Amino acid sequence: MSARRRYRITLEGRIYDVEVEEVPAGQQPVVEEKVVAAPRAGAVEEIRSPLPGNVLSVKAQPGQQVKSGDLLLVIESMKLENEILAPRDGTVRDVRVLPGANVNIGDLLLILE
Question: How far is CA 59 from CA 17, 70, 87, in A?
Answer without folding.
Answer: 29, 9, 15
